Amino acid sequence: MSESVVVEGPRRPFAAGIEVPGDKSLSHRALILAAMATGTSTIARAATGRDVQSTRDLVERLGVTVDGDRLTSPGIDGWTIPDAPLDCGNSGTTMRLLAGALSGADGTATLVGDEFLMRRPMRRLVDPLTALGASVSLSEDGTAPVTIRGTGSTTAADVDIPMASAQVRSAFALGALRADGESTITSPTGYRDHTERWLEAMGLGKRESGTTFRIYPGDVPAYNYVIPGDPSSAAFLWAAAAIIPGAQVVTPNVSLNPGRIGFLEVLEAMGATITGEVTGAVLGDPVGTVGVQGNELRGTTVHGALAAAALDELPLVAVVASYAEGITRVSDAAELRAKESDRIATTVAMVNALGGGAQAQQDGFEVLGLGWLDGGVVEAEGDHRIAMAGAVAATGATGPITIAGAESVGVSWPRFFEALEALWSSQ
User: Which residues, at least 6 apart from 68, have a Cβ–Cβ distance to it below 8 Å?
Assistant: First the structure.
């Protein structure tokens, strides 16, 4: 049942330090790697949203024992693949990464999802996984169901994919761990390299020139993972602070992977004050503290590698741009059309529903910064990032904003509205 939530922002400066939930991308990867390993791993501070729960549920169905933060696995050779389809819920990361892991398992698995996931493109998985020797079949439209037939091992391959997709690169790498020799994958820049940093730290891969990563076949070790905060979640708090001159937020212990902080570059280009400090690392992946202070904002241009690095945050770019002076142009972001919603269409609809000025382009959008937004109704269209971006828009809006379909935030941050309210009410 669709749920509506009414949010009304403070329209004044605030200051707070808030620790955001564990990183969703890293939680998926830790669960799948722990499932591939033989023995017991622990995963502390894993994300609690429905997407990560989907991955947790599916590794259990493959024969992994999950007890709180502890996962005990027979290893990928001991997985029991059920005849019934494996339901990935709303999680494209679950479907794509697990498809890669299953390409190196022995047996046939079919991956399905909810109505939104079943519409998302999966054809990009076929060539890389087929190069490894797996059999991959999809619907006629190139969508799920995704059926993976593996033989317990794969064939070494060198592939070059045309898109900067961390999920496809990760799926290939997970499958290549079971290969009969070393494999490589190359793509354009702008992807998150979490999986590759982790595999390199485990001795299972190595970064080569440019964007080429070499995978060494071998057994994944059991490991004690500690998941840092999610910068894609922190981005909503960063955006709220950027909107109000003088507002401040500090987010400790967040992932500072270079492929995840493009949104901070955008905010800085628009005039927000950004501070950052690396305080540690998880398997070679940097972790640290980020501070954002709001100032008078100006429009900017987001394209190329920056658009790829800020892809999940581009709806937030549109919100912040509405409070800026001048035009903000986003391009090279056609990938937005294949997310939980057509995020170009839903982002433009969100801004315009709130009295802003936005126009869709084939591969992005333009926003005319008016310096303000009205209240209104945002239709989330089943997309958690649109629901949360609409709520952030209320930070400086002239009236309350109703989020229709607010339950979608549970995909990534179940207590998001409480966290936003805590930020707004801080002094």
Answer: none
